[in-house]
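Subject: for your reference before the review

Hello V.,

The reviewers asked for a structural picture of the protein, and I figured it would be easier to keep everything in one thread rather than splitting it across files. Below is the amino acid sequence we used in the manuscript, unchanged from the supplementary table.
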Amino acid sequence: MPLYAYDCDRCGPFQDWRSMSESGDPHPCPRCRRKARRAISAPRLGIPGALKQAHARNEKSQHEPEVVRRKAGGGHGHDHGHRHAQKSRHPWMVGH
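And here is what came back from the structure prediction:
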């Protein structure tokens, strides 16, 4: 469900979650309960750092997957209670 911005004539701006089918309908102000019109707002483009890095890595490897080779010895240096699949139909995907 998207978050929409509204502007109450009496109380000012507020936001609320609504279904897309209700997006154009006036919404009651949470303070005074008067009907408020939907306000125009900028899209939320801010992405947290780790998520932004992961997205950039996925975009970079979309057409040319990066090949990762295992170190000699067959392991990846740590044990955290689960096994990793040895063969994959998509070797460029992270199996963690």
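For the response letter, the relevant points are probably these. The helical segments are 49-60. The radius of gyration is 24 Å.

Happy to draft the paragraph if you're swamped.

O.
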